[in-house]
Design goal:
There is one protein chain. The chain is an alpha+beta fold. The chain is built from 11 helices and 4 strands, in the order βαβαββααααααααα. Strand 1, helix 1 and strand 2 form a beta-alpha-beta unit. It is globular and about 45 Å long.
Length: 245
């Protein structure tokens, strides 16, 4: 049996796992799921119902970092240093999880946007798509899961800014975080911040370009001042995003 990778099409943590598997030429079948409906698929194999999940003949591996652990030597040519692992964990938390909270903060008042982003196949910008089934229940669940409250929104914005500015200073002096070649940290920052940058090489690009995001989101993104980091992410995607699925 080929390995199965369970994902959400717009999930940046799913993209992190996919990119690592693709770099390593690891054979897998892509199984995209619809948020909410994923529960019935994942419940028989994992206790915590989040993606990405890699199901192989011998094991279940959940989480983008754990999936990268399986393939890092083939994907990057060597094992990562402790410094890289620590920075990866920081990016996962301060950027990856913060952006989950912020994305839903900006779009949950727009059911039509959520409807498009939750599709298994991307729509066109001109298409009209209804909200997901049981949208109000899904929205309530997301607000609880990602702690979408005024106080936490301020906290995650601060965490995002702190980590992004640290990485900007790093990349001002070297092309790759480890100083020698494309590695886990570079892949992690590119995949997790890709939703803001929207590189054409990203598998999620057709979804994010199928919607008109709220003005509040667009103004917030413009005011971040991360143009240098966004350009770096575009470079990483153009040079290293090898699609296999």
């Amino acid at each position: 049996m080929s390995a199965k990778l369970y994902t959400f099409p717009i999930s940046h943590f799913s993209e992190k796992a996919r990119w690592g598997l693709d770099l390593a030429n690891y054979p897998y079948l892509l199984n995209p799921l619809i948020p909410g409906q994923h529960i019935q698929t994942l419940k028989p194999i994992v206790s915590d119902l989040y993606v990405p999940v890699l199901e192989t003949d011998s094991e279940i591996v959940q989480g983008s970092g754990q999936i990268l652990d399986l393939v890092e030597e083939k994907a990057f040519g060597s094992k990562s240093s402790e410094e890289e692992k620590q920075m990866e964990e920081s990016i996962d938390t301060k950027i990856g999880k913060s952006l989950q909270t912020l994305l839903y903060h900006f779009i949950l008042d727009y059911p039509e946007i959520v409807g498009k982003l939750f599709l298994l196949k991307p729509a066109q910008l001109s298409d009209t798509v209804p909200p997901p089934e049981h949208f109000e229940l899904i929205a309530l669940s997301l607000k609880r899961r990602y702690k979408i409250t005024p106080k936490n929104i301020d906290a995650v914005k601060l965490a995002l800014d702190e980590c992004a500015k640290e990485l900007i200073e790093v990349y001002k002096t070297k092309k790759f975080f480890n100083g020698k070649s494309f590695g886990r940290v570079d892949l992690t920052i590119a995949s997790l911040m890709g939703m803001l940058v929207e590189p054409k090489e990203s598998p999620a690009y057709p979804w994010f370009t199928s919607v008109t995001m709220p003005d509040s989101y667009l103004q917030w993104k413009k005011d971040l001042g991360y143009d240098f980091l966004f350009d770096k992410i575009k470079e990483f995607y153009k040079e290293f995003r090898i699609q296999s699925k």
